[in-house]
Write a structure and sequence with these properties.
The chain is an alpha/beta fold. It contains 15 helices and 7 strands.
Length: 406
């Protein structure tokens, strides 16, 4: 029996999330006044020894990376990474970039990111981990490359496109695909024809061709120019410190842990927002080939960062795989400690049922809190970040000078 664990926010919040994906209207321009030389903007660091440093005291201690821009991509497992970052920052009182309009849960995706899309406050945030479209200059200004690590997540292009096309029901945007037996296959047989039928490419329809390249900032009009695509991939190699791959999710996280001086408990996860098995489509080889041709830019992008990922893993040495085995052991242990057995459904967004979890009863207070945080999606987390910011502002603004205490 399937149990429905519905997101317990109100209907306006659910609608607001979907509207943020579909609406192309950004907020009005508001100037951002921030002093980049302010000492309060410097990186927050705490020194923790790694396992190797605990054994060999001659090794210098590393400092955990606390300033992170995660370019969240659709249907790649990115909600799981966002949860990891939300938990990491929340337990360390780091500041999160939040959308400037309360009713939205993305940074006005699919518009290229602008400073006015983020709520302005008196110091730079530490983490950005909700949907935003890559835009170098404003992102580099808000998250300086010197003090921030840039990461993102990609997925094998054929599986990625199938997931996007079917989960977001993109066939409904084309008149000729609404009543056919196999809309994805039919679309791919004459994709250019169907795309010309679309009067307006808005919202999620922007993902209809090379979705990963689009999210990483390259406009669709350039996707047919191989030289431009090739140069843009080289540019992304310079911009991102770590590009994770969904197919090697555990390996990517262990690499992040080692490069960011984190601990294994910082990267433990439960998969979030995964489709139900019955909604996943097995693709014939011909369809996969058609997808690769239609999304040739994403194929190049994935191939380059697949090679990059494994090059970085080789650089870590044999200890990397010991770390990976230990991580997977800890993952299984956490699942056994937290989760009830069975199949459960959750509804994080309006009209979207995905696989979910149920936390065991009678856990200790601390473990219960940890387990529930691990299954929390970005909507309640964003609301929590906003509430914490409001409380912080109220505390600061209500303070008065006390000369008698000087």
């Amino acid at each position: 029996m399937l149990t429905l664990n519905k997101y317990n926010g109100n209907a306006d919040e659910e609608k607001g999330f979907l509207d943020a994906l579909m609406d192309d209207t950004p907020p009005p321009f508001k100037p951002v006044d921030k002093d980049r030389n302010d000492d309060s903007l410097k990186v927050k660091t705490h020194v923790y020894p790694t396992v190797e440093q605990a054994v060999d005291r001659s090794l210098p201690p590393c400092k955990p990376v606390n300033n992170i821009l995660f370019l969240k991509t659709h249907k790649t497992g990115s909600s799981t990474v966002t949860n990891i970052l939300n938990r990491y920052g929340d337990t360390r009182d780091l500041m999160f970039a939040v959308p400037s309009v309360r009713a939205t849960y993305s940074f006005f995706w699919p518009h290229p990111f602008q400073l006015r899309f983020a709520q302005a406050f008196g110091r730079a945030p530490n983490i950005l981990c909700n949907h935003a479209r890559y835009n170098k200059v404003p992102m580099n200004w808000l998250f300086p490359k010197e003090t921030t690590r840039y990461i993102t997540l990609l997925r094998e292009p054929t599986q990625h496109f199938e997931s996007i096309f079917n989960f977001f029901r993109l066939d409904k945007r084309f008149l000729g695909l609404r009543n056919v037996m196999s809309p994805l296959q039919t679309f791919l047989q004459n994709a250019t024809f169907y795309l010309k039928q679309a009067k307006n490419i808005t919202g999620l329809l922007n993902l209809i061709k090379n979705p990963a390249l689009f999210e990483l900032g390259l406009d669709t009009k350039y996707h047919s120019n191989f030289t431009v695509v090739q140069n843009y991939v080289r540019f992304l190699q310079q911009e991102f410190d770590l590009v994770m791959l969904m197919e090697y999710f555990d390996e990517s996280l262990v690499l992040l842990k080692r490069r960011f001086c984190w601990k294994i408990e910082d990267i433990l996860y439960f998969k979030l927002n995964e489709r139900m098995d019955k909604h996943k489509q097995n693709l014939p080889e011909k369809v996969k080939e058609d997808i690769r041709i239609w999304n040739s830019g994403d194929v190049l992008l994935y191939d380059v960062f697949n090679k990059t990922l494994w090059k970085m893993i080789r650089e870590e040495g044999a200890d990397f795989f010991k770390d990976l085995a230990l991580f997977r052991k800890e993952l299984e242990s956490m699942k056994g400690a937290c989760l009830r057995e069975g199949k459960f459904l959750t509804k994080p967004y309006a009209g979207r049922l995905v696989q979910g979890y149920a936390v065991k009863a009678n856990l200790s207070t601390q473990l219960n809190q940890t387990c529930n945080r691990m299954i929390m999606n970005e909507i309640p987390y964003l609301d929590s970040h906003r509430a914490k910011l409001a409380k912080l502002y109220q505390t600061i603004d209500s303070s008065v000078n006390r000369p008698d205490l000087l």
